[in-house]
Predict the structure.
Amino acid sequence: MGFSIIIPLYNEEHNISELINEILASLNNLYKEFEVLLVNDCSKDNTLKVINQISSSNKLIKIIDNNTNLGQSFSIIKGVKKAKYDIICTLDGDGQNNPIDIPRLMDKYLSSEKIYLVGGIRKNRKDNFIKKITSKFANKIRARILKDNCIDTGCSLKVFDKNTFLKFPEFKGLHRFLPAFFMHYKKQSVYIDVDHRPRLKGKSNYGTLDRLIYGIIDLLRVLLILKNIKND
């Protein structure tokens, strides 16, 4: 059974080549059918040039180039819509998610037809102290309000069902609330511990305070969306 890996990219020219090499090394001997969709979100560096060079020598690598900066959620949505397979895997392009965990998530996903989402949980995060504290606070608030049974929705390493995902409303920040939407649509989700690595090159594209503020705004938006879906 094939699957599509979707990686949104913004200014990751120094990380993406190594990440692709790791993905291929982790998967080539295990799976015959998969593709990697690299979504360049209007990067200002040489990300597009680098990934074009990669894709030119490997037919498994496909490029989606956004004309404007859409953000992570809409880049993922765009990738899912263009994906060849019905099983989707997402991860960040900065190398902090370890591709060696992808087979573990896939095995869990395929272990039962009742499972529609497998999410990674970063047990030993390699982020700075402030980011870890604010993330932990935001996760607790979100979990208490949405009751989505997930302690780390911010981990981008996930495997999920394409067709269910495409039923969800499209909005900025959707990627951080997948557990709540899968639960709302009565689709089972499970979570497993995954590796987390420090960013070796470049800098984070998200500010800690900005992430917290937008997270609160997104939470209120999700509450309204879920209420409207229920009322419908």
